[in-house]
Amino acid sequence: MHNRYDFKAKQLEPGQNDDFDAVYQAAKKCDVKALRALQPHVCINMRNAACHSPASQLAYEGHLAAAELLRTEFGAITSNIAFGAALGGQLDYAEYLRIHHGASLRSLIEGAAAAKNRDYLTALLEHLTDEQELYSYEPPHVWNIAEGAAYGGDPVTAEYYREIFDISPTQLARKAISGGQFEYAEFLRTQLGASASVIALDASSAAYLNYVDYLRIQDDTVSNANIASGAAFTNQRRRAESIRTTMNQDHWWIGFNAAKGGQRRYAEFLRESGVIVDAIAQGAAAGEQLDYVEYLFTEHSASIAFIGLETNKSRFFTNEDSTLRTLIFLKNNAFREAITRRVYTPHYFKYSINCIERRATHVNTLIDEQRFNHTQALAWTEPELQCWFLQGVQLVSQKKLSYDTFLMIGSFLSPLRGMTGRESKDLQKKMFNHLRPNFFIREQNKKRRKRKVAQEGIVMKKMKT
Question: What is the pTM of this model?
Answer without folding.
Answer: 0.84
